């Protein structure tokens, strides 16, 4: 499948530290991990690494970092002919400190006062999937207009005018917990399952024609399947570095949709890929191979490989693989249900699991085939620097 990723890229330098630095002190760092970064670029990288026909459209600076980013993508078989070079500002740089004691990260983004946008909107491909990080509004709108039959996905990780507008026109909104809370005007309380239902309903009220997935950090992801709101918990691993895990979730999500997986399997694969990544240090360097994800999935669901001639390699791990919880045990019961919500919450958060009777959530209808809002048209600039 042909997948076009639109958005920003950066150059990431990850430095593991024994503890978070104290102000006014001096530290000697003896390790660093360098790679390209940026959500859309990371998605394109994963898709290229996983064997899809992956194209990336974004702007790099005419500097050493920009050159390294392009080379990094091409080594993963990503096609870079739609990348543009700016001579006005340098390539964005991110310095990431990873606390080895607790697996948290602190990120410093070094960007110019203005960030150049893509100017060339013509593509000599017909993508099956369009992924956008929402930061290239004009280019994304033009791609959506030009390829109306493509599966479209937006990473809604923040709230701004352009992103809110783009959400109207894409098929899939994969949003962060923060985005969901801000747009809905409600807070998620993991100890109160009705708060999750209410947030999701508010999102569906605002975007009735979209499929919506809410990533819940280490708790997993919330989505709808067969008319029910469900939560697929994330896999349990020791967190070493969460960098890029969200981008990896998005990349795996795009891969699964491109290969026509249903939503249940799509979320499972995405959770596995993101979960495996946090057990490794570094951003893009933590992206698991597709074989690792498939093996993990097959082992946990006792699925034998399609062919016995070339059995897949075992996942190399000194520890037993953590369980993938059954999403069917984590359906969210609507607030007005007579069932015991406390029991469902206990099931989600680690108490003895129960298997509730599937309860449809009212007023969460599947999206209609066509959006009710016409996509605007934006003219491309003819002044493009190559």
Description:
The protein has 386 residues and is α/β, with parallel strands linked by helices. It has a single domain, classed as UDP-N-acetylmuramoyl-L-alanine:D-glutamate ligase, CATH 3.40.1190.20. Helices cover 28% and strands 19% of the residues. The chain has ten helices and 14 strands. The protein has an eight-stranded mixed sheet with strand order 4-1-9-10-11-12-13-14, sandwiched between helices. Helix 1 crosses helix 7. The radius of gyration is 21 Å and the shape is globular. The protein starts with a strand and ends in a 38-residue tail after the last helix. About 17% of the residues have low confidence.
CATH superfamily: Ribokinase
> What is the rounded distance between the termini?
27 Å
Which CATH C-level class is it? Alpha Beta
Rg (CA only): 21 Å
| SSE series | EEEHEEHEEEEHEHEHHEEEHHHH
Strand content: 15-25%
- CATH fold-type name: UDP-N-acetylmuramoyl-L-alanine:D-glutamate ligase
- Indicate the overall shape: globular
Q: What structural class do the secondary elements suggest? A: alpha/beta
Continuous helix count = 10
Stretches where pLDDT falls below 50 for ≥5 residues? Answer: 308-372
The largest β sheet comes out as: 8 strands, mixed
| Helical content (DSSP H or I, runs of 4+) | 25-40%
CATH architecture: 3-Layer(aba) Sandwich
- Can you list the strand order of the major beta sheet? 4-1-9-10-11-12-13-14
Per DSSP E runs of 2 or more residues, the count of β-strands stands at 14
Domain count: the total is 1
- The mean pLDDT is 82
